[in-house]
């Protein structure tokens, strides 16, 4: 992991009216995945409304929209991102009510309901007047920036995904054939370094154990295997995808005052989803080198660390903001088949079977229900001044009819959440400090 040479104080901020930035500052409010299929505007707890007001008062607020907009009139695809997503168009109005105007649109659920569900979602987002990026009717449009006009300057958003189904990537437009609708992909390759004996066994399994150099790399099962003394895993972005995305970032740098790059990525370090994959770190650095002011990751549904690279913040994962994935109205039979459920089984039967009545998977792990709302404040010279992290809980161990929406975490849980971010950020050269009752993040001097 490449470490930052700057220190950063990040803490739990007081829930009051201290969130307003000084004159000339620009404040981003950033959260992770919004899997939303219920109203969030109907609640009135004071702490909840203060959180919403804080988001609304930002200059630009971002979330990843990990949902599809349709009325289940389309057949489910042969494979999905897990839960087949679908919700009414009014969920976009709910997110707009909360203050969000920037939406990531590339994720592993983009093609749960095929091209029809994908295009229905794009149409709904256009009708709602939100700014989105990462998806389009061909690769050029999927790769293109979305632009938001604000009083503090024009904001460009570039979105992409490294986790997606085989049907999801957008295709190039040709002079003689239309491009394919889809998302903006950042593909990557994985290379495994294994012992020579293991490589020989793999070569035999692949049917390529003839008269070849025993140490020659083997392409097999979608990865590359090579011999070495130490077992290692390396990942590297596809150079063509990387070049195309960073070219868009450079163009956006010339067209906007602020540039945000977003990626949906489940991939982590070997055996540890809390640590970003090698290719993701390299991509984040490349995006900032190309001109991004903020890099925001999401996808693993868990918090990851924060890095300050060349004075710009990298949020490797902001986990969940809304996690309402187990009250969906319908699911295709493929999901029921996975748990040997009959044709007359109901969605409630499916969700009970999948989680074994909340005793496994997401409902049984509290880390998936803890997150932060992050705020990055820049001065009028585009220099990062501070980062504030506001811990939130999504209702771990509550009934699925209740859990999934964000609320401010209490002091004990808030400390736990910030301590986790501190631990994960420390390896990246970023210092995260919890200060009970208030939170002000300041960029420290070079060390």
Description:
It is a single chain. The protein has about 450 residues and is of the alpha/beta class. The chain folds into two domains: about 25-185 and about 240-415, Purple Acid Phosphatase, chain A, domain 2 (4-Layer Sandwich), CATH 3.60.21.10; about 190-225, no CATH class. It has ten helices and 22 strands. It has helices spanning about 45-55, 90-95, 115-130, 140-145, 195-205, 240-255, 280-290, 335, 345-355, 410-425, and strands at about 25-35, 60-65, 100-105, 130-135, 135, 145-150, 155-160, 180-185, 190-195, 220, 225, 230-235, 260-265, 270, 270-275, 295-300, 305-310, 310-315, 320-325, 370-380, 385-395, 405-410. The strands form five sheets. Strands 1, 2, 3, 4, 19, 20, 21 and 22 form an eight-stranded mixed β-sheet that branches. A hairpin with a 2-residue loop joins strand 10 (about 220) and strand 11 (about 225). The longest helix is centred in the middle third of the chain and has 17 residues, at about 240-255. It starts with about 25 loop residues before the first strand and ends in a 21-residue tail after the last helix.
Please tag this protein with its features.
Purple Acid Phosphatase, chain A, domain 2, alpha/beta, 447 residues, 10 helices, six-stranded mixed β-sheet, disordered N terminus, 2 domains, globular, 24% helix
Q: What is the compact description of this entry?
A:
This protein has 447 residues and is α/β, with parallel strands linked by helices.
